[in-house]
Amino acid sequence: MVVFHDTVALDAEPPSSEVVDRIFRALADATRRDIIRRTLIEEESISSLAETYDMSFAAVQKHVSTLVSAGLVDKTAHGRERRVRARPDTIRHAQSLLRQYEQLWRDRIDRLDQLLADD
Amino acid sequence: MVVFHDTVALDAEPPSSEVVDRIFRALADATRRDIIRRTLIEEESISSLAETYDMSFAAVQKHVSTLVSAGLVDKTAHGRERRVRARPDTIRHAQSLLRQYEQLWRDRIDRLDQLLADD
DNA sequence: CTAACGTGCAACCTGATGGTTGTATTTCAC
DNA sequence: GTGAAATACAACCATCAGGTTGCACGTTAG
């Protein structure tokens, strides 16, 4: 039995809509999603990330920076490198937001069922 | 009753990254998320939606149109009204994408555990 | 020490986004 | 039948996003 405890982020400060905007906006780009995927698997430097994309190093740098300010990845200095690492907690946060929408839907179904049962 | 079909079928096997882009992009706006929330609870016309936002009717129309082309809501004609209704399946789709990322993270943890166990 | 590497950053361009207003069309109420 | 309501749509505008190039700077390798 698995217990889900992903409502953690909700009992703190209500996540401002700007923060949520930034998270989903950051997820709305295939290159950035790929960076998340790769850095979930293992830490990578920006240049090693940049090698596989058909765009300039600076463009990849910008994508990483977007992900950092959305809280989806961390960047840590190791010598001249910056190692990028995904933050699963933020991903889980986005997941929990979507789950709340699904819950609204379930509540609606429950209410409709209740209406039918009342007949 | 007329149903508008300018959405993309997301049941298609490989959800092209453009489709995913559009889903997350559509979610990256507080007004649009609120429209989703309200139309998950119950169907609403565009004008009834527009009443509560501090922007023009046309702006709300555009937001709805963005949501439609992301497959996050449906628009159905009832007389002179267009009733907007959220599509929980697309929301669930976005959720499942995030869940896949989380799975990558778990796989990584498992591999690290395995490395430790090998010692 | 010096050259190459990895990065940060600014300036710039282009297309997309999010808002506006105005006009046309269809439908409903009276 | 006429006017108001609900919507569609186009044109327009300001800002933002995603890409580029060029240059500066710390770090590492030889």
UniProtKB/TrEMBL annotation, chains A, B:
InterPro entries referenced in this protein's UniProt entry, alphabetically: ArsR-like_HTH (IPR011991), HTH_ArsR_DNA-bd_dom (IPR001845), WH-like_DNA-bd_sf (IPR036388), WH_DNA-bd_sf (IPR036390)
Matches recorded under Gene3D superfamilies: Winged helix-like DNA-binding domain superfamily/Winged helix DNA-binding domain
Database matches in SUPFAM superfamilies: Winged helix' DNA-binding domain
Domain HTH arsR-type: 12-106
Protein name: Metalloregulator ArsR/SmtB family transcription factor
Protein's organism: Nesterenkonia aethiopica
